[in-house]
């Protein structure tokens, strides 16, 4: 029986990073994963690399290029006639990127001497100081032992009972990434990250997209000033038909999908060629044998952990989507690194207050820290500064001058409490807010830092100045 210091169950962003870091620290490490790619072969990287973060960004970029070619290039004096796109080629390009990155993880495993085992990992019990893990790959079952186990099994799409996913007509995130043709009428249930991003992709390629969202408030987790600006842009400019406060009723699936719903007290029904169900995700613990070994989970199925990601069982840890906190790939990775370092005797630190959020629509939406709504609810006295991209030379040159940056700071200490961005490259700009908050910086600190000209980051600089009532261009 093979023995390891650490066995990681799951090779997504939390698991594979944890395995690599553990191996770097001199721990004999194995990583167990059961995911298979479109070709039926084992594929590392979990949901994020295979059917989530990475492929969705590839398609978003392709659709944005086509939209720019069809609508925006004329403003640059560039004329194009008869522009067309090849859906199959777009999907092929996306798949190529996925294959490159998943294959890269395999190379990293070899480089760092991580043993990669394909199959479903199951906690089989504890004997002495060792945990036994069964790895089932079809009819083949192998048992290994480990001193420490890191559970990083991720999450799966939440199902809508009346609309079971078949990835032919009713799609989850995986099906939405692999459409062979642009549907004329596309329905999306859920106005979260996946719904907005996938809706944007297929809208730019020609689909009529209607998004049905149960919540009464758009992007409730985001700062509402930014959320309102995003709603206006996504509906007016992108052309998404977003309906809030919707109660989904019967869903009838045939060659098309008919969705009955209630909105504003009125009963309605819409028919779509394809329907994407994106109503959130649930922790993936099926087959782990949590109950059998006494691994504690909460009422929603999340594995219960302390602030160090340690479970109720000795030397069993859990990270990523399967535990509390935001379901974000970068959060999972940092937890994985931290656990590996704790096992090795180090004392790492993660500040959950400085984890950035990003939605890769056009324009992008990103934020870190507290929203205005949260600060008001907590009774925190704050000040704010905002600045738009409309007066930014770099944004105007890019033809992407919509959006704004908002910085929230403590009214007394000036310490930055939150930064919120909607605009070009918001996913990159928000990092300045993350770094500033990690180092307990003030809005004045950002205001005193020299920002390159012309650059998009000048809008961050201007927002910081505005928080101190000394904006130069506002």
Descriptive notes:
The protein has 474 residues and is α/β, with parallel strands linked by helices. It folds into three domains: 3-157 and 282-350, FAD/NAD(P)-binding domain, CATH 3.50.50.60; 170-279, FAD/NAD(P)-binding domain (3-Layer(bba) Sandwich), CATH 3.50.50; 354-467, FAD/NAD-linked reductase, C-terminal dimerisation domain (Enolase-like, domain 1), CATH 3.30.390. Helices cover 32% and strands 26% of the residues. The protein has 14 helices and 22 strands. The strands form five sheets. Strands 1, 2, 3, 4, 5, 6 and 17 form a seven-stranded mixed β-sheet that branches. A five-stranded parallel β-sheet has the order 8-15-9-10-11. Strand 9, helix 6 (193-204) and strand 10 (208-212) form a beta-alpha-beta unit. Helix 1 runs parallel beside helix 9 (329-343) and helix 3 packs antiparallel against helix 4 (87-111). The mean pLDDT is 97.
């Amino acid at each position: 029986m093979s023995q390891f210091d650490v066995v990681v169950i799951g090779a997504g962003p939390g698991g594979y990073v944890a395995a690599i870091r553990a191996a770097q620290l001199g721990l004999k490490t194995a990583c167990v994963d059961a995911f298979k790619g479109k070709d039926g072969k084992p594929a590392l990287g979990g949901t994020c690399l295979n059917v989530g973060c990475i492929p969705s960004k590839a398609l978003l970029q392709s659709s944005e290029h086509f939209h720019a070619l069809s609508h925006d290039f004329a403003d640059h004096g560039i004329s194009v006639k008869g522009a067309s796109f090849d859906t199959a080629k777009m999907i092929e390009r996306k798949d190529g990127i996925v294959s490159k990155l998943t294959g890269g993880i395999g190379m990293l495993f070899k480089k760092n001497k991580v043993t990669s085992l394909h199959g479903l990992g199951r906690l089989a019990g504890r004997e002495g100081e060792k945990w036994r893990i069964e790895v089932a790959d079809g009819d083949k079952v192998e048992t290994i032992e480990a001193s420490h186990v890191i559970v990083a099994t991720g999450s799966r799409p939440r199902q809508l009972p009346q609309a079971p996913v078949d990835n032919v007509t009713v799609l989850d995130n995986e099906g939405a990434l692999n459409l062979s043709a642009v549907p004329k009428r596309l329905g999306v249930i859920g106005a979260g990250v996946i719904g907005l991003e996938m809706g944007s992709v297929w809208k730019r390629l020609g689909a009529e997209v209607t998004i049905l969202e149960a919540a009464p408030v758009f992007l409730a987790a985001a700062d509402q000033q930014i959320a309102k600006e995003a709603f206006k842009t996504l509906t007016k400019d992108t052309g998404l038909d977003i309906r809030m406060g919707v109660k989904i009723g019967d869903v009838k699936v045939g060659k098309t999908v008919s969705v009955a719903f209630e909105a504003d007290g009125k009963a309605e029904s819409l028919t779509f060629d394809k329907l994407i169900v994106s109503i959130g995700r649930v922790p993936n613990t099926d087959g782990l044998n949590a109950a059998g070994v006494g691994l504690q989970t909460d009422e929603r199925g999340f594995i219960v952990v302390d602030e160090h990601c340690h479970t109720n069982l000795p030397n069993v840890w859990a990270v990523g989507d399967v535990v509390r906190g935001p379901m974000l790939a970068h959060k999972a990775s940092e937890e994985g690194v931290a656990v590996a370092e704790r096992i090795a005797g180090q004392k790492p630190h993660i500040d959950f207050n400085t984890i950035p959020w990003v939605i890769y629509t056009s324009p992008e939406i990103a934020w870190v820290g507290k929203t205005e709504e949260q600060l008001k609810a907590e009774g925190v006295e704050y000040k704010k500064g905002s600045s738009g991209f409309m007066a930014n030379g770099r944004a105007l040159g890019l033809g992407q001058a919509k959006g704004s940056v908002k910085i929230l700071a403590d009214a007394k200490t000036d310490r930055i409490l939150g930064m919120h961005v909607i605009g070009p490259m918001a996913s990159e700009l928000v990092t300045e807010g993350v770094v500033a908050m990690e180092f307990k910086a003030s809005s004045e600190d950002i205001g005193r830092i020299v920002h390159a000209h012309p650059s998009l980051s000048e809008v961050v600089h201007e927002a910081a100045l505005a928080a101190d009532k000394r904006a130069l261009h506002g």
